[in-house]
Amino acid sequence: MRRSVFFISDGTGITAETLGRSLLAQFDHVVFDEQTIPYVDSSDKAWEAVRMIDTAACEQGRPIVIDTIVNSELRRIISHAHAFKLDVFEAFVGQLESELSTASSQAVGTSHSMDAQPDYAARIDAVHFALDNDDGARTRYYDKADLILIGVSRSGKTPTSLYMALQFGVHVANYPLTEDDFEETELPAALRPFKKKLFGLTIEPGRLAVIRRERKPDGRYASLTQCETEIRAARSIYVRENIPFIDSTHLSIEEISTRILAAIGIKRRPA
Amino acid sequence: MRRSVFFISDGTGITAETLGRSLLAQFDHVVFDEQTIPYVDSSDKAWEAVRMIDTAACEQGRPIVIDTIVNSELRRIISHAHAFKLDVFEAFVGQLESELSTASSQAVGTSHSMDAQPDYAARIDAVHFALDNDDGARTRYYDKADLILIGVSRSGKTPTSLYMALQFGVHVANYPLTEDDFEETELPAALRPFKKKLFGLTIEPGRLAVIRRERKPDGRYASLTQCETEIRAARSIYVRENIPFIDSTHLSIEEISTRILAAIGIKRRPA
Question: With respect to CATH, is domain B117-264 assigned 3.40.50?
């Protein structure tokens, strides 16, 4: 079974997509052909969206429309489309207005704008922090880190650091554990003063070998034996030093990030 | 006016946060004290959440709860809390079930898991592509880029590239325009073969000076005159070469990214 889906918004469309995909993930035996129409902020653009929906309706049965448009006039136009429509603001904003005993501002496209994000500059700052303190390149700013991720090469440190910075404004450094570190009986000197900020990543050796092979197909680096040895050594550091750690093998970056933040109790900053 | 808000989820909590902040952004005269409780996937954790909500209720009046828990038994527990509750799945999943004439899977925490993201590996791949092709460090993979962002130093290229990669799985390289490039009457040689992939960023000189000063407080780099000169030169390249561009001054990364993708018609991959 196939269905066309339209995520329609007067802003970035990120809220409509995020909510919509969450809901549609509950119907795993339906294939959804998704399309996002962002910045629908005029009646012309709303009518253009209606035309796109109606065209899809001719091809594949009634489309599903998930709509986060704030302006009720534009929503009214969208409702002319031949579609099954989930109207997010209609469903919830009225309820919130009565609960808060106040009218909503009906402001368009606000939720992912800079103005709606008091900590916006902090997120950008966090991205630069993550880049500057990526892969152990620099360790002298570790005192400013909220968190230092450690793990073997390609265990997921960099994408996780960047996601935490972009989404949650958390300052994350990351440090790769290498063979030099495994031979020591102590933590690497750069990490020792910041033991409380450390969080380890581990991963199944087979999965790591696949990831490394994409990067460097040949040589010891991507061999299963090497991956096994490194991961075993990294885990024994975590256990020896009592460092919390998480297995990234079956988790998305979103899951790794949110589980770590929940585990260490760092407050997420608004994204 | 202040209100406590709880975003509660059986997964990462990202959907609850994204939707919730969208809705709350419509009430700009209320201060919301936000808290996310992710991974509420057992009755113990649900009761623990109820306790947290009730504690907040004692301190600050009835909290608002935005709940994306799938399991109806856990939702029932949450509804014991003394709170005003927006129940996302109750509002929409039933409607979708009738529209699709099929039952939902009631699967917990699926929407931000790897399994729900067929293009998950593509997103990670895109992050590494963005890092490897950041700041003009390497130009030999430009043939593999979906898009090449150009602009002066600190105009927002790197955070935008990373966001597009993480959120949409788009392969974005970026190339800094410098004084060497401004003296030429042609595009930089590395960019010339890929003119159709170029997108320019511009920014108000005053804003750029502020951003640069945070990085390097002294010297010509952060001076207003220097910023003005560089931005004027970059803009004249965009105009001369007919390269589309966007002013990043008042836009968030989310807005810059989604506007660029909409302008050039690159399809977003699921995030």
Answer: yes
